[in-house]
Amino acid sequence: VLWLARELSTSPTWQQRMAVVVSHDRVFLDEVATDTLHVSGAARQLTQSRGNYSGWAKRRAQQQLTHEREMESKRRMIAELRAFKPLGSTPKQMKIFKSKEKMADKLEEEARELDEQAASLTEDAELPLSLKAGGEVSGFLVQVKGVSFGYPGSAAPLFSGVEMGIDARSRIVLLGENGNGKTTPVQAAAGQPRHTRSS
After folding, report:
1. Which UniProt keywords apply (predicted)?
2. pLDDT tens digits for range 18-49
3. Using an 8 Å Cβ cutoff, are 150 and 196 in contact?
4. How do the domains of the chain map onto residue ranges?
């Protein structure tokens, strides 16, 4: 991850290119991001913000706090207006009462609109996820020896003479430009598509 962060943030190759990064590694995001896109499931919105993850998180927390303060202020004002009881039923008192009711209705509508505008500040609900660890696996999970693969009609195989073993401790990254065949070895190891030759 450190190499990739350095490559994306300092290499001239990436200065004029766009990279979309999806990661849970906040340190990595802070290192490489120039813009942050937030997908809100609650609001069904995509919002864009300049800067890295930490800057976005700080601004979002401030926006949430400001929104909550505005909503609390409106709730207090509405409660005070609704608590007004006319002193008798004189025309003047009834006029004041109706005016306060109308103001409370207007504030409630403003609060609804404010909530709709700030829907992307609402945290998405946590989905329960429970992963059970399987038993310990020994030996190779996938092992290939002398595998070659080429598409029918191609002049040369995509790869040949591949030897590889994957065990339970393997952590593998496949790197390469688009269209260079990163998915093919995974598909071949799974039997889709069939490799053209193996020993």
Report:
1. Coiled coil, Repeat
2. 888 888 888 988 998 889 888 877 667 778 88
3. yes
4. 22-121, 140-189
